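Module 6 notes. Inverse folding takes a fixed backbone as the condition and produces residue identities as the prediction. Think of it as a translation problem where the source language is geometry and the target language is the twenty amino acids. Below is one complete input and output pair. Work through it position by position during the lab.
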């Protein structure tokens, strides 16, 4: 048959009986589908082609049919396909009807329509960027961003597929944090809790809850709701990542933990021993100063100076004591060498060098022993410190020394009640 005459029905082409001025095959027929196939047939010299003739179609229906067919082409770009689906929607089609007519899945149709909502100029720029190589997968990822303006902003900012996904993840996470923070702070504000800028003093406020704002956590919501049933004095701090909720301690002061109580007790024991040691060592100093300056002797018999020196020398070796004239000045003045004027130091030094060598050695040993408190950090007796002190005490006793209180003996030998049994 001649072109446009007695055309048979076929799915190879669709012709529509309409205004002849709009047609291209004559006799009031317009090709809706198959333009290129018809042109190829003409070039091949064919005068007849199979076709399907449809009558009484509206303009909307004509365009819809053309778009449905056009969607099957393999050479369409992402943007072209997305725009085609959107045009079908504009003509009154639904996602279901488009899927049924085109053969695409409903998910594909929905995702193409999502792409159509993007700024097409930005999309075209990214598609033409050979370094980006944007894909459907990249564009589908943008669906996580509900705000179309934000989608376009992120797409425009991205410089690669990985960067696009990173920007999307950052945006989604930031949005979740803002939503979580808004929900948590609304609950706190409603209960009368006050936000503070600085972290509250730990000794006065207890941190009762940490709310991570990466997402709204229903378990944390329950905990917060329980805390806010008694909101008196509740305050909180917030940043981009969490909200810290604090409650004041009942008596305005944090109660000590069992460990802290134990440590506090140890500190008190150590302080007691140190205080007693300072007192007893001062009594020793005053006695030694009396020997040096006055040559005083209160014992019935004078000790053998040679034996005393031998004992003191062994004690100095055992405790690794260093001899120094400065130590003599420290003992006799009761001050530090460098706190004295030059004239004072010279006078004291002249006085302390006159007495027996044993007296001077006592002063040097005392200077070493004055800081060796026989207790360690956990309140236990230090025998390595206590024994030399006892030896020194026994030497001093030979010269008539005695403590004013027997508790000082207990400090030296480790029997004082302030010590903790090992």
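Target side of the pair, the amino acids:
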């Amino acid at each position: 048959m001649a072109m446009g005459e007695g055309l048979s029905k076929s799915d190879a082409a669709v012709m529509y009986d309409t205004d002849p001025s709009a047609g291209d095959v004559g006799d009031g027929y317009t090709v809706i589908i198959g333009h290129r196939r018809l042109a190829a047939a003409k070039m091949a010299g064919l005068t007849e082609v199979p076709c399907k003739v449809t009558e009484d179609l509206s303009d909307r229906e004509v365009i819809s049919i053309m778009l449905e067919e056009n969607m099957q082409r393999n050479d369409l770009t992402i943007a072209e396909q997305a725009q085609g689906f959107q045009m079908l929607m504009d003509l009154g089609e639904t996602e279901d009807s488009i899927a049924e007519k085109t053969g695409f899945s409903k998910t594909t149709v929905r995702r193409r329509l999502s792409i159509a909502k993007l700024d097409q100029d930005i999309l075209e720029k990214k598609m033409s960027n050979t370094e980006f190589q944007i894909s459907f997968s990249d564009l589908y990822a943008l669906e996580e961003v509900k705000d179309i303006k934000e989608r376009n902003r992120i797409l425009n900012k991205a410089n690669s597929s990985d960067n696009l996904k990173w920007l999307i993840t950052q945006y989604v996470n930031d949005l979740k944090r803002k939503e979580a923070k808004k929900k948590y702070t609304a609950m706190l504000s409603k209960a009368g809790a006050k936000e503070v800028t600085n972290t509250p003093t730990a000794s006065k406020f207890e941190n009762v809850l940490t709310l991570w704002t990466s997402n709204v956590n229903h378990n944390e919501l329950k905990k917060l709701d329980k805390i806010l049933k008694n909101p008196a004095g509740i305050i909180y701090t917030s940043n981009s990542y969490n909200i810290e909720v604090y409650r004041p301690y009942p008596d305005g002061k944090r109660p000590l933990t069992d460990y802290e109580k134990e440590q506090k007790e140890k500190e008190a024991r150590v302080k007691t021993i140190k205080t007693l040691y300072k007192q007893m060592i001062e009594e020793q100093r005053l006695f030694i100063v009396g020997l040096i300056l006055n040559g005083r002797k209160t014992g019935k018999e004078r000790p053998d100076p040679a034996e005393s020196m031998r004992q003191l020398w062994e004690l100095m070796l055992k405790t690794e004591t260093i001899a120094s004239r400065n130590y003599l000045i420290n003992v006799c003045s009761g001050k530090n060498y460098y706190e004295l004027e030059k004239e004072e130091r010279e006078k004291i030094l002249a006085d302390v060098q006159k007495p027996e060598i044993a007296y001077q050695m006592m002063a040097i040993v005392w200077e070493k022993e004055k800081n060796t408190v026989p207790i360690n950090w956990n309140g236990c007796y230090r025998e390595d410190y206590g024994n030399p002190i006892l030896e020194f005490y026994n030497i001093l006793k030979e010269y008539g020394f005695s403590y004013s209180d027997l508790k000082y003996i207990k400090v030296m030998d480790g029997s004082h009640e302030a010590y903790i049994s090992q």
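Reference fact for the lab report: The first helix runs from residue 35 to 43.
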